[in-house]
Amino acid sequence: TAMSLLPKSSDLFSDKTYWDSFFTQRKSSFEWYGGYSELCEILHKYVKIADKILVPGCGNSELSACLYDVGFRKIVSIDLCPVVINQMKRKHSKTRPCMEFSMMDVCNMTFEDESFSCIIDKGTLDALFSSDNDRAKHLISNMLSEFNRVLKLGGRYICVSLLQPFILKFVLGWFTTQGWMIRIHRCLAAEKKTRSQNQVVLPVFVLIATKLKLLSDSQTIMELALGNAKPTRYQSKTEISTVIFDLQQYMRMSEYGRRTLCHEEGLAVDLVGRDGNVRYILHVADRSKKFARTFAVFIVPEGRETEWIFGTHKGRVKLCQLSNVDRLLVVHLQRKETYENLSAVKTELEPYVTDFSPQGLDPNYKIPFLSLADDLGSRNILYEGNSSFSGDYIIEDVVGKLGLESRRLVFKNNQCVIQSEAMLHSQDGNKQVNQSFLCCAHHRYMLLGLGFVDPEVTPIKVSIIGLGGGGLASFLKTEFKQCSTQVIEIDGEILNVAKAWFGFKENDRLKVTIGDGLEWVSKSEPGAYHLLMIDADSKDNSIGISCPPESFLDPSWLAEAFNALCDTGVLVLNLVCRDEVKRKEVIVDLKKCFPFIYFCVVENEVGQILFCCKQQWDFGQEIAAAKENTNCLKYNSSVFQRHKITSRNKDTIVVLRKKVDAKTFHAL
Known about the structure:
Helix 3 links the parallel strand 2 (about 55) and strand 3 (about 75-80). Strands 4-3-2-5-6-8-7-9-10 form a nine-stranded mixed beta sheet, with helices on both faces. Strands 21, 22, 23, 24, 25, 26, 27, 28 and 29 form a nine-stranded mixed beta sheet that branches. It has a six-stranded mixed beta sheet with strand order 1-11-12-14-13-15. Helix 17 packs across helix 18. By secondary structure, it is an alpha/beta fold. It is built from 21 helices and 29 strands. The protein is elongated. Residues about 1-15, about 25-30 and about 620-665 have low confidence and may be disordered. It has four domains: about 10-235, Rossmann fold; about 260-370, Rossmann fold (3-Layer(aba) Sandwich); about 380-435, no CATH class; about 440-645, Vaccinia Virus protein VP39 (Rossmann fold).
């Protein structure tokens, strides 16, 4: 599959600034374009032995001599510098007597009309079009007009160029106006040579413009061939320009990665298939800030990309360390893309992974491809739907750790985040959702809010804002018979999803209301609830808070939530905030309403579970009361013991015992 490439973080580079810096620092106008050995494969597709060839701006390039040596005899090279022309004549007059060298201005040539069948331009266009201004455009327009005059009908202008965006825009406009056919090749061999010399690598292009008779009703043919791929035809200048620009951006990103150890921030790049869909996402992780000498590629099995070790930069750095390499390229496979097998994926990725190898890596270093197993994992998309409130969504079954199968709800606008997940088990030969197991770690921690409630209270009145797949609410219904739970979900389609795909069912102890959670709490009777759980995500990613929506953190609404809780009631918040300054602001606002706030850190996740209380708690007494049970989680296990948890949710208790100790709760 041929791929065009689009970097995710293109804003790292200002286009004009990058190009200005590149052309200021490079040593030679021609060292980036390759020599005959790198260009010959493309040249010989379009140049015939019988062609009369013009080489404009020849300089001291060996290209003409190399062409002569393989049988091309009708070669005329021109340059405006008399010193260069005299040098080339002296150098080649005896060994290559048929070669011609003339001092001539490319904008004012003295050749007869239609004198040549081929023009080979290696870097002259770029050298003369070094700045995007009217003077340069006038110069290039004159040069191309002269090429048009001296070239026969059906002849080809072959130009080796880096095709800066302003150059590409101009030449595409000029040739399409004249009715010429355009094909552009990417010259991988030239790039490979530059990389072997440990130099900055940018994509090198060979533009082939074929002179055709101008017809008023004809549409210009424009094609692009990336590497050895079959040429792709494009209908507009914008389309072909976008693909080339994306490729240039990709190469800049890879150069940035090769020269910068990305330990702090990481680097992510999309590989896009011909159909325009993202096929792979590549993540760069470095073991340390020291010079990288070893490199590997890790292919994440389908459905596992959201796990902490694969789905976060810190996790990928840990994976890099476990893989015992200095740099690791972690590859995410994409939904709705088809992959034959692990070997086929390796073959498809091999041309691209070297772009992210560390600078100075031994050219003979064989890059290993790693994965968890010999297969690519399993992902089965069951259903795709749309919610007017939340957008497009996907229901999928995936096989995860230890071969366990789970069902997920994922929103397409944020496919890196699992909205809801439930474990599956087989019952009477059919897949069923296991409602006695909580897949989401933050739900397990939110359950600790029950420990703040007097165990003698019946019923324990719980309100949950946000349903998702209904996992938390279903668990309370199944395992905590003393709970009476009211769920408020703003999106009616999500309730349909929970019922259709996650086995969610209401009963006399579990009810769902479709409505605004903010309004529901505001209209609640004072002291109505023992627990108020906020498990809703934010649709606005610009504020730095993923959960909950910012309106649930407004002091005026928090005051209403305070009133809706009984004297011993607790507001339980799943707070996911990557901005530490913003997090501190949230805590300040919470403390304006709730005098006592405690929190748990969810292991391997960004989020924290906040317990906002009306009264202070002495966790020392709770821990002491649980001391006799040395196998328990001290305070936390006493919570579950007091509420007489049945053996059915043993998995949840085991997980908590492993992950939560006596220091779980921290006061703010």
